[in-house]
Design goal:
By secondary structure, the chain is of the alpha/beta class. 42% of the residues lie in helices and 11% in strands. The strands form five sheets. Strands 1-10-9-8-7-6-5-2 form an eight-stranded parallel β-sheet. A six-stranded parallel β-sheet has the order 15-17-18-19-20-21. The chain has a three-stranded mixed β-sheet with strand order 11-14-16. β18, α24 and β19 form a beta-alpha-beta unit. The longest helix has 22 residues.
């Protein structure tokens, strides 16, 4: 009798200790050769596959590995390289691959944006003048490697052609491009079939978004064509991150298995399954383990869900898997032995999730899982019953929110006059977004301090010295509003997680954000409470060094929870409001200490939008409320800034205005100024800084390029509203390029001011 199988959809690339990141950066910095890079990353890749094999996963993904990003991999596979990189044809070399992502001296990097509603960034394909060709069959390479090296008959993973094109720029001729791509996908599948592959996973998360039902005909035609080319290769059409609007139609598409998210679906997937049934000729790959969060699964509840599913889909046509790739979680909690025992027991990283999948699969196959289920229940009972999740004071404050005022005393038009009166800034004021380069010396000093190699006093003195040095650099550059540089912070979210009750930082809980950039999302495991001032000391010290205004720098509630692993026993908006109440006290403490320009960043607001438009308004209303809960208790002449980055803003321009921040800075250079088109249509009545150069590329922009970006913005934004700043924080950049780029930015601004000098 056939058994239920377990499957994985993707595994973290970083390595347990960020070995992948280190290899990439060593290559970029010319410390290792390409041969060494390939060798080191192969070792990491095979180690990850071996772990999945040893833990008993039946269907192991291959080809989910990447040197940067899986969407960029898809572009390279089909020779879709922007013309400015001088690519002609054939296999794309590794340096060109990296240049598309990072830019070079003569060409700007391709745009980068969020992967659906996650904090992972992908490189946006550019399809203008694209002539798709199959340059290399990456899926086949990784399939054969796994089979040869480890005896794993893996499941190659591809990004589906429809999702790929939907995420691209220059896709106006969608049907024409699709007609060129599908035969190339067919060639990939045919070669996999000929090599002996039994399964292929094709990811089409676009199916979990809101779209017109007529588009399903495109999926029908594409997958009928692909199935015909490789009839003996089983296709798992994988969806994730949401439920399916057209469940009854999607499950009938001409593939062998349909992957459905039963975690982030608001309970709609099981309801649709029970209502519409499931085709008798297909396998259901049920995503029941959360691929995006780190909390231990309630195995009893998951088994109950699977038993409901099994009443509709016989067990011999059922696969148990995560809700999405495990790319979005850390590798293993075994690297966190120092965590509180109760908290550690409640965690499940990638490796632990594999064991949960195996346990559930074993249970469905009538195996003995008594010990596994008992252990999970005890761990969950312990964390849910802990005092961390039962803070009476915080819960009382949340119940009394109706008594908290969330509105500034004066409207923007009146309070901005008070702010201008004391700030006395020139036209087109210049500033930065917050962070300055975290040099090797900064990182080493922090490491030495954490290891107690140096004393608290020595570390504090170093931070003060570095802060003063950068205050002087900013004054020398002639920036108008300064920042302290954030040298004491490892990450804009993690830092606050280290200072607020209810949060816990990890040591090796790294996840990929973009390229080699890794972050350690804090764990929001309990009720959130303010205990003491977080940023006041550093901000006040920086302000004492200069007569120019220095911004206080905070991270706003929605970004904190979107970039954290948030407890899953209460709704996200409750956690956001807890954070908002805590940060409200921090904002008040900054103001009381004399900091009168305070930036409260919400870069992740747009990325957290639900994939279904029907869920947008509540999310946006909740986001505005938590932001205003944080910021609206200040005096009218205190200027509130916020910052957002790398997203499509046109859909939420009204929400941006509703935040009621006095100044907002938004990325625009990497998207080549496209956000400006939004302002051409709707306008904006507050002050705004559109990032005038891309900080995610090591390339230093020219003064002319920056002026071009400024002038384009000034066609639709009044010069009296406009601030000049980089796209984002400068933490990841090197000092020399940072200073050169900022000098170009200030010089470009001064030249343009001359043309506008009659404006008051």
């Amino acid at each position: 009798m056939a058994k239920v199988q377990s499957s994985n959809l993707g595994y973290p690339r970083l390595g347990e200790k960020r070995e992948w990141k280190k290899a990439l950066e060593n290559y970029w910095n010319h410390k290792i050769s390409e041969e060494q890079l390939l060798s080191e990353t192969k070792e990491l890749r095979l180690h990850a596959l071996k772990k999945q094999q040893d833990k008993g996963i039946d269907l192991i993904p291959v080809g989910d590995f990447s040197f940067y990003d899986h969407i960029l991999d898809t572009s390279i596979t089909f020779g879709i390289v922007p013309k400015r990189f001088n690519y002609e044809a054939g296999k794309v070399d590794l340096d060109t691959y990296f240049e598309v992502a990072r830019g070079n001296d003569g060409a700007v990097a391709s745009e980068m944006t969020k992967w659906f509603n996650t904090n992972y960034h992908y490189i946006v394909p550019e399809l203008v003048d694209a002539k798709p060709q199959l340059t290399e069959n990456r899926a086949l390479f990784y399939y054969e490697e796994a089979k040869r090296e480890l005896g794993i008959d893996g499941k190659p993973v591809l990004v589906g052609p429809i999702t790929y094109l939907k995420l691209a720029k220059g896709n106006d001729d969608f049907k024409g491009l699709l007609s060129q791509l599908v035969p190339l996908y067919g060639q990939v599948l045919k070669e996999l079939q000929d090599a002996g592959a039994k399964w292929v996973q094709i990811d089409e998360p676009y199916l979990a978004t809101s779209f017109d039902k007529e588009e399903l005909a495109v999926f029908e035609a594409v997958y009928a064509s692909l199935k015909a080319v490789a009839p003996s290769l089983k296709i798992e059409l994988q969806t994730y991150f949401e439920s399916l609007d057209y469940f009854e139609d999607v499950v009938k598409l001409p593939v062998d298995a349909i992957g459905v998210d039963f975690v982030h679906d608001h309970g709609e997937s099981i309801e649709a399954l029970e209502k519409f049934g499931f085709p008798e000729d297909k396998i259901l790959a049920a995503g029941v383990i959360d691929g995006r969060n780190v909390w231990r699964a309630d195995l009893d509840a998951k088994l109950e869900l699977l038993e409901r599913i099994a009443k509709v889909v016989p067990k011999d046509r059922l696969i148990v898997q995560p809700s999405s790739s495990l790319l979005h979680v850390p590798v293993t909690k075994a690297s966190e032995p120092d965590l509180d025992e109760v908290l550690l027991g409640g965690l499940s990283f990638a490796d632990e999730k594999l064991l949960e999948l195996v346990a559930l699969t074993k249970a469905l196959n009538d195996g003995d899982v008594t010990a596994e289920f008992a252990d999970a229940k005890a761990a969950l009972d312990a964390i849910n019953g802990s005092h961390h999740r039962n803070n009476a004071e915080v819960q009382e404050a949340i119940r009394n929110l109706e008594n908290v005022e969330v509105k500034r005393d004066l409207p923007f038009a009146e309070r901005i006059k008070l702010q201008h009166a004391w700030l006395q800034l020139p036209l087109l004021p210049t500033t930065t977004i917050g962070s300055f380069p975290q040099s090797p010396e900064v990182r080493k000093k922090r490491s030495d301090w954490l290891k107690k190699v140096i004393t608290d006093a020595e570390y504090e003195k170093f931070i003060e010295t570095e802060t003063e040095r950068w205050i002087r650099i900013q004054e020398d550059l002639d920036l108008d509003v300064l920042v302290h540089g954030e040298f004491e912070r490892t990450d804009m979210v993690e830092y606050f997680g280290q200072k607020l009750d209810g949060f816990q930082a990890t040591k090796f809980g790294w996840v990929q954000s973009y390229g080699s950039r890794a972050v350690r999302p804090p764990l929001v495991y309990g009720d959130v409470a303010f205990t003491e001032a977080i940023t006041v000391k550093e901000s006040v010290y920086a302000q004492s060094l200069t007569d120019r205004p220095v911004k206080g720098m905070l991270t706003a509630p929605v970004t904190i929870i979107n970039w954290s692993f948030v407890r899953d026993d209460v709704p996200d908006y409750v956690v956001a409001n807890q954070v908002g109440l805590a940060l409200r006290k921090e904002v008040e403490a900054l103001e009381e200490a004399g900091i009168r320009v305070i930036q409260v960043d919400e870069p992740a607001l747009r990325e957290g939008l639900p994939l279904k438009r029907s869920r947008w308004q509540k999310y946006l209303d909740d986001a505005v409320y938590s932001f205003k809960l944080t910021t609206t208790s200040v005096k009218n002449d205190t200027q509130i800034h916020t910052h957002m980055c790398y997203a499509e803003f046109e859909d939420i321009i009204d929400t941006i205005s509703a935040l009621d921040a006095d100044v907002i800075s938004i990325e625009t250079s990497r998207s080549h100024g496209e956000i400006i088109e939004t302002f051409e249509k709707v306008g904006y009545d507050k002050e705004i800084g559109l990032g005038v150069y891309d900080i995610h590329s090591p390339r230093v922009p020219t003064t002319g390029e920056i002026q071009e970006n400024i002038r384009r913005a000034l066609k639709v934004i009044d010069a009296r509203q406009f601030w000049v700043n980089p796209d984002c924080g400068l933490k990841t950049r090197k000092e020399k390029e940072t200073i050169e780029a900022l000098r170009d930015m200030v010089n470009a601004t001064k030249e343009i001011r001359e043309a506008y000098k009659v404006i008051k």
